[in-house]
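Quarterly update from the structural biology core.
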Amino acid sequence: MRHERQVELLQRVAGAGEHFRGLHAPECLVHPAAVYTDPERFEREVRLLFRDGPVFFALSAALENPGDYLADTVGGVPLVVVRQRDGSLRAMVNACRHRGAPVVAPGSSGEEARSFTCPYHGWVYGTDGALKGRPLSAGAFDDVGSDCGLHRVAVAEEYGLIFVRPGGDEPIDVGDFLSGAQHDLADFDLGGYTHVQSRVNTWKMNWKLFLDTFTESYHIRTLHHSTLFPRFNSDCTICDGFGRHCLSVGLRADVLDETKKPVEEWSILPYGTIQYFLVPSGLVVHQIDHVETWRVEPLDVHTSRLTTSIYAPTRPETDKALSYWHKNLDLLLKVTGTEDFPLMEQIQANLDSGALPEVIYGRNEPPLIHYHREIDKVLEG
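Predicted structure, tokenized:
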């Protein structure tokens, strides 16, 4: 992150006053509980946000070499994204043109593939999705012609980020979609990181409750009293909006110590968990020595699948180095998996009961207010 940007953020913290009140949003937001429980609203969210896209898919480092692929579901659409020989990407519907079987195992990834073979009848596709063969079919499909390649959808890659549009092939303008966030994201050189590991878990909660978890630090004092609170501030986060997206910087308890140094030495990186919310699906998090990403896939109005990935600045060449990154991911998933997400499931159950008509987002939760208002704009538009 540019030094002048770090100084700007730290100056806002230094001038925020007691309990960082200067970082608060202008006003609270009272939101209907139905935004987490209404099936009709959920269907609109999936269509407008996840199908029409663009949708964050992964960091470029997840598909490093030609033939590397990642198969997953986005907005209910089975996709496989493959790195091509010329370095470009191709995104295709992961369904054989014969009978619709997945050509690549859903949820799988692989390296340097040369072709894909449907497990049902053995139709063979190139990594570009072109049909290469229909073995032992004895001409039985000749009258439908040879144009039976995998259906393509739009994919775009920039700033080390990969985006897809599951619902069609309309080109994606990444800069326009990021609405200014790219100026920050480019500073992190995300394309230079190395993918270490991804893990997948399913939770009984609306997809927005996943994002809600990370939008505010107010809960740290109580929910994470024994784990995170000794090291992290619980008053407020820094928030900057970029269209529907936003930056949220969670601050360490000793962040103001940095502002006692000469300005030219200031750095927020050791004192902040720097999170970029790429609505609807993604969260890109810069920690002190690595990057984490989260991607949420809504399965139904109260069920979500989360993919958590860790990326290292250099390729781990030893078992010790690999173990270090695995332990980082273990710790992250232990805290969220034993403290955050089980409580989100309980919140979802309470909201599903219909007994709570609304929820309240406080002025000390500015990212929470921002992204919910932006989602409402999309649905209303």
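DSSP finds eight helices and 19 strands in the chain.
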